[in-house]
Amino acid sequence: MGSTPITLAKPDSATQQQAFQADLTAAGIMGVIEDNILNHPRSKQVRIGPSEIGMDCTRRLIRKLNGQPEPERGIAWKPTVGTACHSQMEEWFGHQPETAGYLVEKRVTVGAIGETPITGSTDLFSITDKTVIDWKFVGPSMLKKYKASGPSNQYRVQAHLYGTGWVNAGYAVEQVMIVFLPRDGEITDSYFWWEPYDRAVAEEAMNKANQLHTLIKTIGVEATLAMFPLCNNRFCPWCPADRQASTPMF
Ligand SMILES: [Zn+2]
Description:
Blueprint: H1 16-38, H2 41-44, H3 58-65, H4 77-94, E1 102-113, E2 116-126, E3 131-138, H5 140-149, H6 153-168, E4 175-182, E5 191-196, H7 199-219, H8 221-226, H9 239-246
Parallel strand pairs: 3-4
Antiparallel strand pairs: 1-2, 2-3, 4-5
Helix pairs in contact: 6-7
Bound molecules: zinc ion.
Zinc ion binds next to helix 3.
């Protein structure tokens, strides 16, 4: 590691030696943080999960189904903050009395892609309210966007996939809910989105994934990719680079 530039204020009273030592202390701390983020299971997960099946970019989905790791995009600090907040919620809701009817971080099977079962753990399930709940920790601009126009299709599909997972596990599911909590703001800014559980939303996404999986197996990943246009999302980990690579130089 050590790739991150660290700028330290140097108090007037500090000696050169102290300043040098403080740099080393900071680099050591940053190294531990970066190593832990890079070695987190999230960074290493290759098999597609329920949170990814509804992604908008079909080319990205194809690559994910093909088991290709996404290009390195630096140290994923914001997802790490999200993971830490999820752990806090797990602890709080895990300590609720059984009579509250909450099930926390239980793994369910949402379906299969080819022969492979697709599983994922849901943040929270309310047996009493028959509701699947997913936490999203978001920054201010995205929070505003979700309040104005609802969740992304990817989030929505994820919620319904989990709904199907709970039905598969023998529970009644009537609602899916996404709780948007401000990563950087006050708790009163939180936004609870929900809609009736609809098995068809989950099925449609699983069908698309299975069709792509079959195509990849039949005609290969490159030919499958060629069937779908590049997306226009500048944050797509693949398409902007693919567009550059395919643009003629003259
Ligand atoms: Zn894309």
